Amino acid sequence: MTATKAMPKEMLPVVDRPAIEYVVTEARRAGLADVLMITGRNKR
User: Fold this and answer.
1) Among 18, 15, 3, residue whose Cα is nearest residue 37
2) CB 44, CB 8: distance < 8 Å
3) CB contact at 8 A, 13 and 20
4) Mean pLDDT of residues grouped by 10 in the chain (44 residues)?
């Protein structure tokens, strides 16, 4: 089974953190206070 079948791509580890964490961290550094994440029905 491929890694993307076992977990959402956004949660795949990049070095030591999930990929989505890098995106959220950069958004916060850029001054965004709120982050809204919308997922599909079957995402876990």
Assistant:
1) 18
2) yes
3) no
4) 76 88 94 89 68
Q: Which ranges of 1-44 does DSSP label H, i.e. alpha helix?
A: 3-6, 19-29
Q: How far apart are CA 18 and CA 27, in angstroms?
A: 15
Length reported for the chain? 44
Burial of 11: CB neighbours in 10 Å, binned 0-12, 13-18, 19+: middle
Give the predicted TM-score (pTM) of the model. Answer: 0.69
Domain, as residue range, for 44? 1-44
Beta bridge partners of 18: 13
